[in-house]
Amino acid sequence: MKSAELKIGRTFGVTFEHQADFFQEISSFCKENKVHQGYIPMFIAGFSEVELVGTCSKIDDVNAPVWDKVHLNNVEACGCGTIAYDSDEDKISPHIHVSTGIKSYSASGHTSHLLSAKVLFLVEMLIVEVLEPDMRRVVNPNLYNIGLLQFI
């Protein structure tokens, strides 16, 4: 286990516009407000389109990450995540997970890592800025080259 006491900065309430790209909106918000890292304790959203990590195919190595995606339409979602900073690319590196319900299928649910989404009506989000320590995603070659959150 690794942990760090977080020095918290500003807290924001954020809404996204209908038909906007979810990740572009987060990126624009962070750039405009000079937020390099933080966490999203919660958000609620409607998405007209969403892609989540998932597959219906057989998985050969159940311990390995799944690199396939599932595409869904017209979902309601709740989610949360972290925002690290990628200094090499000079951009944020969000890691968001969501639970979704497909409205036209009795709100049948899917929960996974969010890859992309297009806003349907609304996103209502809280973003909490972290001032210290630095939060970075460091690639671990022993764990399938996944970038893991580190406190530096």
Question: Can you walk me through this structure?
Answer:
This protein is mainly β and 152 residues long. 8% of the residues lie in helices and 61% in strands. The chain has one helix and seven strands. The chain has one helix spanning 22-33; strands at 7-16, 38-53, 69-86, 91-102, 108-132, 135-140, 146-151. The strands form two sheets. Strands 1, 2, 3, 4 and 5 form a five-stranded antiparallel β-sheet that branches. Strands 6-7 form a two-stranded antiparallel ribbon. It is globular. The two termini are 14 Å apart.
Q: Percent of residues in helical segments? A: under 10%
Shape: globular
Task: Give the class from helix and strand content and strand pairing.
Answer: mainly beta
Count of alpha and pi helical runs: 1
Low-confidence stretches: none
Count of DSSP strands? 7
Order of helices and strands: EHEEEEEE
Percent strand: over 45%
Radius of gyration: 16 Å
Distance between the termini: 14 Å
Write a compact overview of the structure shown.
By secondary structure, the chain is mostly beta strands. Helix content is 8%, strand content 61%. Strand 3 and strand 4 form a beta hairpin.
Notable traits:
152 residues, mainly beta, two-stranded antiparallel sheet, 1 helix, 7 strands
How is the topology of this model organized?
Blueprint: E1 7-16, H1 22-33, E2 38-53, E3 69-86, E4 91-102, E5 108-132, E6 135-140, E7 146-151
Antiparallel strand pairs: 1-5, 2-3, 2-5, 3-4, 4-5, 6-7
